[in-house]
């Protein structure tokens, strides 16, 4: 099973600042990594797929990068609505795994 | 626009079987090309994949839950279902149904989720 490890667990920043979230895979997932945003009481929402492609309707301030085992989600300038929990996810060999999440909170 | 909606009891007694159904609208399960999943989230915790099914009936389960899980599909109703047997309080969670395109593809649609509490 591929294990995804996200860091940091919690990130405290202010609106307007840049956020950098990390996801590391225990073995290569090529570029087949997705990022999701989850707000309280809501289902996760797809932000990024194939490591760097924004999903439909996702603002340009969200970007993803990486391949193999190391991936990054960057939010260039935080808006108030961006404070949420972010998960990375991969699907390979007929199994899903998720990272444990990074909580992005207002400083 | 594809929509998924979970339904089922919100309270299940310990040792009983949890049963949920996901109704899909805006797209046909039988058209193929997608996998239909169950994912759960324990209160305040991360996401755990339970398993998924293809329209043909092929299933894949999380090995940690495999002995207790059954996922089935009813293409005539455009629904798929989850049964989780011998539940305990540790199975209390929000259960989501979702869709993805297979290995390498993301989960592009999610249901809103339904909280299932296991308690006597």
N-to-C CA distance of chain A: 36 Å
* Run of helices and strands of chain A: EEEEEEEEEEE
Low-confidence stretches of chain B: none
Shape type of chain B: globular
* Structural class estimated from helices and strands of chain A: mainly beta
Please work out how many helical segments of chain A DSSP would assign: 0
Q: How widely separated are the two ends of chain B?
A: 39 Å
* Helix and strand run of chain B: EEEEEEEEEEE
Number of H/I helices of chain B: 0
Q: Quaternary arrangement of the chains shown?
A: heterodimer
- Identify the overall geometry of chain A: globular
**Rg of chain A (C-alpha, Å):** 13 Å
Largest sheet report of chain B: 7 strands, mixed
Give helix % range of chain A: under 10%
Biggest interface, residues from each chain: A-B, 26 and 22 residues
Strand-pairing-aware structural class of chain B:
mainly beta
User: How many strand units of chain A?
Assistant: 11
Q: State the helical fraction of chain B.
A: under 10%
> Hey, roughly how much beta strand do the residues of chain A contain?
over 45%
The unreliable regions of chain A are none
């Amino acid at each position: 099973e591929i294990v995804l490890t996200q860091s940091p667990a919690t990130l405290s920043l202010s609106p307007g600042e840049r956020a950098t979230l990390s996801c590391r895979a225990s073995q290569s997932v090529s570029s087949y990594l997705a990022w999701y945003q989850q707000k309280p009481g809501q289902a996760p929402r797809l932000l990024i797929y194939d490591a760097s492609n924004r999903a439909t309707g996702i603002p340009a301030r969200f970007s993803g990068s990486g391949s193999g085992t190391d991936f990054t989600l960057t939010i260039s300038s935080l808006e108030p609505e961006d404070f949420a929990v972010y998960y990375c996810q991969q699907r390979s060999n007929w199994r899903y795994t998720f990272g444990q999440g990074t909580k992005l909170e207002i400083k | 626009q594809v929509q998924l909606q979970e339904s089922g009891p919100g309270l299940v007694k310990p040792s009983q079987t949890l049963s949920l159904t996901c109704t899909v609208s805006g797209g046909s399960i039988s058209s193929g090309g997608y996998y239909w999943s169950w994912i759960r989230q324990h209160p305040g915790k991360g996401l755990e994949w339970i398993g998924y099914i293809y329209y043909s009936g092929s299933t894949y389960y999380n090995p940690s839950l495999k002995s207790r899980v059954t996922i089935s599909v009813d293409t005539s109703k455009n629904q798929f279902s989850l049964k989780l047997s011998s539940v305990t309080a540790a199975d209390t969670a929000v259960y989501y149904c979702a869709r993805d395109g297979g290995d390498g593809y993301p989960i592009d649609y999610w249901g809103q989720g339904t909280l299932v509490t296991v308690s006597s």
